[in-house]
Amino acid sequence: MKALVINCTLKKSPEPSNTAALAQVVGDRLAESGGVDVEYLRAVDLDIHPGVVSEAVAAGDDWPAVHAKLLRAHILVIASPTWLGRPSSVAQRVLERMDAMLSETDDDGRPVAYNRVAGVVVTGNEDGAHHVISEINGALCDIGYTIPGQSWTYWHLGPGPGPDYLDDQRGHEWAHRTGRAMAANLYDTAQALAASPLGAPPQ
After folding, report:
1. pLDDT tens digits for 83-121?
2. Distance separating alpha carbons of residues 71 and 201, to the nearest angstrom
3. What is the dihedral of CA 14, 47, 141, 106, to 10 degrees?
4. CB neighbour class for 51 (10 Å; exposed up to 12, middle 13-18, buried from 19)
5. φ and ψ of 172, to 5 deg
6. CA-based torsion, 106, 111, 115, 118: positive or negative
7. Strands 117-123 and 152-155: what pairing?
8. Which stretches in the chain have pLDDT values below 50?
9. Which end of the chain offers a freer environment for a tag, N or C, measured as fewer CB atoms within 10 Å?
10. Measured at the alpha carbon of residue 167, what is the angle toward residues 3 and 17, in degrees to the nearest 5?
């Protein structure tokens, strides 16, 4: 089983990413669950052009390779910081490109996101995590992903400016415990869908 974690931080590698650090907790737990092969992408490191298609928009557009990874992954985790109480602009770019998957089907007529599960990781130092989780999960559900119960985790220390996840240990225990539960729910649901897959929607 394969999992793909797309980190939508605004920070390019190799700058440390708070969002990457919390997403790693989820990824590590998935890797321990029956040997899931976990791949991490930092979307801001790629040249993802604006658009709502799976094909390259222009020369140098890296999205087609990301799309291919999405189709290989049984589990998807979108990880985003909170800015102005909303998902990052990078997360929005990723979701806009994924919009094309709404009209893509497999050989059996099922939307290509069917029988794949997804969840969300959020970091930030202002309240707004549940809004970000709702926006991203809502988009992924529209595309066709199955969203298990409690398939999210987040970290923040309340409204207003504050320390970063990597700079303050407060709240880590809760965020990590919730992240491990998220990973378990994603894995178990992916296993259930593999054993009893969804069929094509009725016409």
Report:
1. 988 999 999 999 999 999 999 999 999 999 999 999 999
2. 19
3. -120
4. middle
5. -65, -40
6. positive
7. parallel
8. none
9. C
10. 35
